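Trying the structure run again after the queue cleared.
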Amino acid sequence: MKNILTTLFICTVAVASAQQISLNSQYLFNEMLVNPGATGNVDYIPVQVSFRKQWANFPGSPTTQMVSSHAKVYDKVGFGGVIFNDVAGPSRRTGMNLNGAYHLQLDSRNDHVLGLGLGVSFTQHMIDVNKLNTYLPSDPAVLRGYNNQLVPDANFGVQYRFKNKGFAGLSAHNLVQVKRNLYDFQNSFLNPLVRTYYFMGGYTFDLGQNFGLKTTAMVQTIETGTTQFDITALGVYKNMLWIGASYRHTDAIVGLIGGQFGPFKFGYSYDYTLSDIGDYSQGSHEVFIEMQFQKSGGNSRTPWLKRNRIYSPKI
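Done. Tokens:
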């Protein structure tokens, strides 16, 4: 048992040092989570709620909840935000991201658009002292762990889009890396978050009148020296149903399924863990539900309006 617990601890520390921003297997359905430049890149208002349970049946495994929304508030300006709660063992990371983006039209037909986005984040790191047993009963890192403050930071992203077919973008998170004492006790504890860079791109291929193939790829690099990539392919039927898979390098094989009915979109993914943690867990589960609100004066580019005119306000 001692060897098993030691192995689990080592695996947890290794993953924690490599993954500081919440993991998300269905980022391709909410690009703003990765790139602020994607804020307001649709003609409707999506409100999405997601839940992820990583490494099910693993004691103290990460659990993440997020609520997000974004929209164009002016002709070329987008605004949105994310509220998140990320728990792993005794530690909790709670906060919000607020993003704004300007969408630069590159041609007269508006087929080519460049989104330039900025974001600010506020994160509070907390420790549940009731979940810790320490060698020093009066350890200040534990006793004062609940009394930390909001840590501000900044994010940036640029995203190029071609019609509704393809996109490519670069983004960076934790740009400022605020060096401040997260805990109010004598020994300083610096903000552990470091800069993280993303490259993400994708293209949707038409496979006849009713079928399509949606492909995406993402590379994530953390300044700690860790790089990870994943690739995804989804078969899509009438923009209503999809099924596919992802491969995350050295980490997991992911199955994805979902659909859209009227203004409601939902998705589910299951991660089959490839690392040693897979011997002690039952994979990872993630689900999201999204409600799409039609903007006043919107047009037929809204996905669910293209399929069924019963939802159109101009019938």
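The chain has a mean pLDDT of 84. Worth checking whether this holds up in the mutant runs.
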